[in-house]
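=== RUN LOG ===
request id: a7f3
mode: sequence -> structure
chains: 1
length: 54
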Amino acid sequence: MKSEVKNWLEQAEHDIDIAEYNFDGNMLDAAAFYSQQAAEKALKSLHISKFNEL
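=== RESULT ===
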């Protein structure tokens, strides 16, 4: 499970990077989308870490 948690967090961090890039480029719709994706993936990693299931 630990590797799955790490994988979800890495994906969330990647989405945050993309969101920041889009935000800096004033592409706010894309920034909002990737921010939401990052939040969802981070919450999935928390859920897996806490309950050992998705």
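=== NOTES ===
Residues 2-51 form one domain.
The longest helix spans residues 28-51.
=== END ===
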